[in-house]
UniProtKB/TrEMBL annotation:
One of its GO terms (molecular function) is phosphatase activity. This is Uncharacterized protein. Gene3D superfamilies: HAD superfamily/HAD-like. Coiled coil: none annotated. It comes from Hermanssonia centrifuga. PANTHER family: 4-NITROPHENYLPHOSPHATASE-RELATED, HALOACID DEHALOGENASE-LIKE HYDROLASE DOMAIN-CONTAINING PROTEIN 2. It comes from the Eukaryota. InterPro entries: HAD-like_sf, HAD_sf.
Length: 93
């Protein structure tokens, strides 16, 4: 479904008045939509700090964090941890 037509529609929506937010689940390096529109995406998926805070809060509410400990396992430090997890101290051993 990621076609030129859909990308053009997204481009026009982002440039409309009043401006619309660009919400992204992941910061994809190969999609220049931010640069083309001048609209910065609000990333709500990993590796954003917002994503990790939402997950931690959800686990804490459900009392699923024994002794307040949490671990993140992934195969790519940049896309799995990124700045958000590091800001929260998950990049430390």
């Amino acid at each position: 479904m990621f076609t030129y037509e859909h990308l053009n529609t997204a481009f026009r929506i982002l440039l409309s008045t009043p401006p619309k937010p660009l919400i992204a689940t992941h910061r994809a390096k190969y999609i220049p939509l931010e640069a083309a529109t001048g609209v910065q995406a609000e990333v709500v998926g990993k590796p954003s700090r917002t994503f990790f805070e939402m997950v931690i809060d959800d686990f804490a509410e459900d009392e699923l964090l024994p002794e307040g400990r949490i671990a993140i396992v992934g195969d790519d430090v940049e896309t799995d941890l990124g700045g958000g997890a590091v800001e929260l101290g998950f990049g430390e051993s």
